[in-house]
Every structure is written in structure tokens, then in C-alpha cells.
Amino acid sequence: MVEFERGPRERELAERVSAFIREEIIPFERDPRAFGHGPAADLVREMQAKARAAGLLAPHVGTEWGGQGLNHREIATVFRAAGYSTLGPVALNCMAPDEGNMHLLEKVATEEQKQRFLKPLAAGDCRSAFLMTEPDGGVGSDPSMLSTTARQDGNHWVINGRKWLITGGEGAGFGIIMARTGQSATMFLADMNTPGIKLDRILDTIDNSMPGGHAVLSLDDVRVPADQILGEVDEGFRYAQVRLAPARLTHCMRWWGAAQRAHDIAADYACTRQAFGKPLVDHEGVGYMLADNLLDLKQAELMIDWCAWVLDNRHDGATGTTESSMAKVAVSEALYRVADRCVQILGGKGVTRDTPVEQIFREIRAFRIYDGPSEVHRWSLAKKVKRDWRHRQGG
Ligand SMILES: Cc1cc2nc3c(=O)[nH]c(=O)nc-3n(C[C@H](O)[C@H](O)[C@H](O)COP(=O)(O)OP(=O)(O)OC[C@H]3O[C@@H](n4cnc5c(N)ncnc54)[C@H](O)[C@@H]3O)c2cc1C
User: Fold this and answer.
1) CA-based diameter of the chain, in Å?
2) Ligand 1 centroid distance, CA of 376 (Å)
3) Burial class (CB in 10 A: 0-12, 13-18, 19+), 147
4) Residue 169 CA: which ligand 1 atom is closest?
5) Omega before 39 cis (within 30°)?
6) Any residues with Cβ below 6 Å from ligand 1, and which?
7) Which of 140, 225, 285, 329 reaches 20 to 30 Å from 110, CA-CA?
8) Is the CATH number of domain 8-95 3.40.50.11810?
9) How far is the CA of 373 from the centre of ligand 1 (A)?
10) Residue whose CA is closest, atom 14 of ligand 1?
11) Which fold has domain 128-234?
12) Is the pTM of this model over 0.90?
């Protein structure tokens, strides 16, 4: 049975994170360094120094890497609190793609690789990137379209291809490159200054919360030593699932916090702004929007907690992919409805940068696409419906 009661450590940590975000991080939201292609490097350093001093850096990783070794349920509570500012997850070093990469490295990397790549990443001494998606008709929703190749040459592998929409590609210390090896795929760890990795451009996108923005990268004869293969050769697609199931869910957690913030701002406006002789909230059209926000936020919270509970309690070797697909679709769409209503409630102010609601709306719109667009998740769930039906027919 799913346990909804929060333990004392979880509650205490969430309270500390909430206070930290309110007192230390929200004031940075007006800092000009917070805009552009994600928060600037010096701002990230400044915020992370504060989180480090408060003992809140990378709370999700194991204690041996400086974190608190939280389970998924505890992570849910803490990340929701961190997401209350779009800068919060960056400050706590639990933003994508680094947080998902830390999870993957903890699960799959060798001890030596952990020392070299995970340790500085968890400490906030470098950033990382995850290089999967490709332009020019390569891999997007369909992993089988992976066109970047890696061929073995002695004790090295030589990688060729192009990648795009690579979050944090500019400024990252290292990347995890997904490349085709024969009929399957392999993950490689590569320093981003390896000869042959070239930044073609940074894309101008709808969102701007992730440091470095989203890059287009060329990989021309990138030579990676064999000991920088992450896990086993040809196991890349399996590891992608190990990374993706929790990574989708942590996005849900962080953006839940942002949607709650938007709701609080909209509620404040609706209760104080007058129109036609009474506060907006007393007009049914506005009051019902706020009521619908409460419903969406609570349903999203329950979906996150349920999926986190599944990830914590699954001992059958399954990765929780189906559950995280369900959570991703339900939560991203619910939070988008919340953000959209908040823009509407704020009227003209909703589309200005005078409140964070405008950014939250843009960020959550993008979330409906990355880590699997809603349609792809629905499509894979529909396949499950058919499989289950066949199973019931004895097929
Ligand atoms: C802000 C942002 C950050 C990102 N960061 C990274 C990153 O760090 N690293 C990385 O590797 N990638 C990253 N991506 C890429 C992201 O994972 C892809 O955009 C996503 O997987 C979809 O691939 P695509 O853009 O090629 O869309 P396509 O595959 O071209 O699909 C386009 C649309 O077709 C529809 N569609 C596709 N398949 C189906 C189906 N089976 N049934 C019904 N409809 C379908 C969906 O509506 C989908 O949105 C990022 C993307 C964004 C927007």
C-alpha cells in the first residue's frame, strides 16, 4: 500500500529547503544573470556556494558523494520545495541533466569513473550533458533512429555524428554520448574538450532555466578510451531507461514546485485585485480557475508520490518505465493547465516578466516535449493495453 505519511527527516529537510529558497534564492530571480540561455556560470557558483554552506547541495546523491542518500519519496518532497523558484534546482545542484546523469553514474559507472566524473559533478565543480537527440533526421522520439556511430580502433572508440537540443552542452565538463555500436547502442563518457567535439550553436528556445541552454554539437572523429565506456558495450538503450524513468519523475517534482508558486501568485492577485466592485476571486470564472488549480496540483502530487513509491518499492528488476510514463503525461499536462490559468488570472501582468509566472508557463510548456512527448508515452501505454488484453485472452 502506498504510504503517504512523511517521515521526520523528510519534513525537516523540506522545511529547510523551503526557507532556503525563499530567503536566499528568490532574491536572485531579478538578477540579470538569471536570464538568457539559462543562469550564468558565476550566478550558479554563487547560489551553489550558499546551498553548500546550508548543507543542501545535491541532496539526492549518496552520502559518499556529499548528498543525503534520499529515497525517491524523500526526493519528491525536497525537489518540490526546491522547484518553488526556477533557480532553486540549479542552486541545489539537482537540475537536469546533471541530476539524471548523477543517478546513472551512481548506478552504472565503475569506481574509477565515479571518482573522475560523479565526484566533481555532485560537488558542483562541473556540469554535464546527455547527448542523445540528433538533428538531420536522426534520433528523437524513436531511439532506433540513432545515427551517431562509434567504431572500435585499438583501445579507443571513434565517435562521429551530430547532436542537438543538448542541455548544458556549452560549459559542461563532460558528456554522456549515446552512439550506435552495430545493431545496438553504447554510452561513452567524454570530456567536452576532447578534440572533435565542436559547439555549432546554442539554440534560442522557449525556456531558460537550465545553465548553458540547449546546444547543437558536432562529433568528428572523437576518440574516447575504452575505459570511458559507461557500463557495457551495446547496453546503451537499457541504461537510457535506467536514467529516464527517475529523470522524468524528478522533472515532475521540480515543475510541481514551480506550478505551486504560480498558483500562489495568481491566488494573491485574485484576492487583492478588484474588478466590477469585488475581488477577482469572488467572480466565479476566476474562483473556479483557482479551484481547478488545487485539483490539478493535488492530483499531480499524488501521481508523483505514487510513482516515487513504485520506484522505491520495486524489487522485481523492472525500471518503473510504465509508471513514470503515466506520471510524466499526467503531471506535465496538469501543471501546464495550472500555469496557463495563472497567466490568465493575472491578466496583462501574466505575460510580463514582472512575476515569475510568465517563465514558469514557458518552462512547463517545454516539459511536455522533453523526456518523451505526451503522444509517445500515450502510444506506449496503448501498446501495454493491447499486451495486457492479449495476456487476458491467454495469448
Ligand atoms: C528543452 C529541451 C531540452 C532537451 N534536452 C535534451 C538533452 O539534454 N539531451 C538530449 O539528448 N535531448 C534533449 N532534448 C530532446 C528531446 O528529448 C526530444 O525533443 C524529444 O525526445 C522528442 O524528439 P524530437 O524533438 O525529435 O521530436 P520528433 O521525434 O520529431 O516528434 C515530434 C512530435 O511527433 C509526435 N510523435 C512522435 N512519435 C509519436 C508516436 N509514436 N505517436 C504519436 N505521436 C508521436 C509527438 O507529438 C512529438 O512531439 C531536449 C528537448 C527540449 C525541448
Assistant:
1) 79
2) 9
3) middle
4) 8
5) no
6) 97, 130-133, 140-141, 165-167, 205, 207, 214, 366, 369-370, 373, 375-376, 379
7) 140
8) no
9) 6
10) 165
11) Butyryl-CoA Dehydrogenase, subunit A; domain 2 (2.40.110)
12) yes
- For ligand 1, atom 32: residue with the closest CA: 141
The residue type found at 33 is R
In tens digits, the chain (395 residues) has pLDDT values of 677 788 899 999 999 999 999 999 999 999 999 989 999 999 999 999 999 999 999 999 999 999 999 999 999 999 999 999 999 999 999 999 999 999 999 999 999 999 999 999 999 999 999 999 999 999 999 999 999 999 999 999 999 999 999 999 999 999 999 999 999 999 999 999 999 999 999 999 999 999 999 999 999 999 999 999 999 999 999 999 999 989 999 999 999 999 999 999 999 999 999 999 999 999 999 999 999 999 999 999 999 999 999 999 877 656 688 999 999 999 999 999 999 999 999 999 999 999 999 999 999 999 999 999 999 999 999 999 999 999 999 97
3-state secondary structure of 106: helix
Domain boundaries, the chain: 8-95, 128-234, 237-392
DSSP 8-state secondary structure symbol assigned to residue 228: G
Fold identical between 8-95 and 237-392? no
The Cα–Cα gap between 271 and 111 comes to: 55
368: which residues sit within 8 A by CB, 6+ positions away? 332, 333, 336, 374
CATH number of 237-392: 1.20.140.10
